[in-house]
Design brief:
By secondary structure, this protein is α/β, with parallel strands linked by helices. Helices cover 37% and strands 20% of the residues. 50% of the residues are buried.
């Protein structure tokens, strides 16, 4: 019989990353994500990996990019203030197509806010934090076991699509403890980045050879010398300002995610078959929304629940299909209303959309979420 471990969400993140093959971590301790750095500091040196505590959050993100380009599966962890500081380098990683994972255990903001209190205030920052248009992949677990699973998924997606992937937790998910049987991750379950099959002299770093729009990536130090820049570049990696080439690059960067968005959607439905009202939530708040859904059913209210685990790309088709069958849609989130706009856009006026918001450092309660529904239905 497999051993059941009692783990925090942050600890499960470490276990998932190691199972996915992460061998490089650079970070800077920050509440409430510090247990992730502490876990890697203990575990990576024992398995031949590298842990580096950098001088600040900007340097941490830069080091992770360097580790990724040198061939390591690389990850960093932070919270809201650090996530803000990392944004320039996250945009750079997207532009040079450096595969890496950024874990953001959210706390109440803005600024230093409430360091030990939960929030879901970085939802839009995960999509639009760096300037310009860039591809965005962001996952959000609701439990300790999902934290393990989605960490593995985040690492796989970073390697598959050559892009930074954000794993969003909140303080509740990061610090709560639940029993977890660590699943066996087989080698065939892990995605390894695409490597070039041409000699170093014939290699073009951004030449697309396959339909997935992802160019192969060699490791620095293996004989392949190539240029990387945050400037718009052609397939050689050197800067260009020719409109045709710049359009081709940005369309490819966006397209390599857009093309696969349907298989990137991870979500959970509860009681939606006959529902007339729908709760939509994610992370720790989804646990309260689940209880609110049960309470509504006990009162004879036909409520259902949609839990989003892929946040970006936003699963607009799923929300649109479910929302079109409802009278009311209640979006429960631990902020002043960041994802409700995406829901409204997807529902497109076919249902009444309302929010159940809380941004005072406390988790939304089931009663608050249910009361919001009862006030409009």
């Amino acid at each position: 019989m497999s051993e059941i471990k009692l783990l925090q969400g942050n600890e499960a993140c470490v276990e998932g990353a190691l199972a996915a093959g992460v061998t490089f971590f650079a970070g800077y301790p920050i509440t409430p994500s510090s247990e992730i750095a502490e876990g890697f500091a203990e575990r990576l040196p024992k398995s031949g990996g590298v842990f580096v505590q950098m001088e600040d959050e900007i340097a941490s993100m830069a080091a992770v990019i360097g580790g990724a380009m040198a061939g390591r599966k690389a990850l960093t962890a932070t919270s809201g203030p650090g996530f803000s500081l990392k944004q320039e380098c996250i945009g750079f990683a997207a532009m040079i197509e450096a595969p890496c994972v950024i874990v953001n255990v959210q706390r109440t903001g803005p600024s230093t806010g409430l360091p030990t209190s939960p929030a879901q205030g970085d939802m839009m920052q995960a999509r639009w934090g760096s300037h310009g248009d860039r591809p965005a992949l962001a996952l959000y677990p609701t439990s300790v076991s999902e934290t393990f699973d989605l960490t593995v998924k985040a690492v796989n997606w970073a390697e598959r699509f050559r892009t930074p992937v954000v794993l969003l937790l909140d303080e509740v998910v990061g610090h709560m403890r639940e029993g977890l049987v660590l699943p066996e991750i087989k080698k065939e379950d892990l995605f390894e980045r695409k490597r070039p099959h041409v000699a170093p002299g014939n290699y073009k770093p951004y030449e697309v050879l396959d339909e997935d729009l992802v160019p192969p990536l060699p490791d620095y130090g293996t004989g392949y010398r190539f240029h990387t820049t945050g400037l718009f570049h052609d397939e050689t990696g050197f800067p260009t300002n020719k409109p045709g080439q710049t359009a081709e690059l940005i369309n490819r960067l966006m397209g390599k995610i857009e093309k696969y968005r349907q298989i990137l959607y991870i979500y959970e439905e509860m009681e939606t078959n006959d529902a007339e009202h729908l709760f939509i939530s994610f992370g720790a708040t989804a646990r309260s929304a689940r209880a609110a859904c049960r309470m509504a059913r006990q009162k004879g209210i036909k409520a259902g629940l949609l839990i989003l685990k892929t946040i970006w790309p936003f699963p607009r088709e799923i929300v649109a299909e479910l929302g079109s069958r409802m009278k009311n849609v209640i979006v429960a989130e631990m902020n002043m209303g960041q994802m409700i706009g995406e829901v409204e856009r997807a529902v497109a006026g076919k249902a009444n959309v309302c929010g159940s918001f809380r941004a005072d450092g406390e988790l939304n309660t089931p009663e608050e979420i249910l009361n919001r529904l009862e006030g409009v239905c």
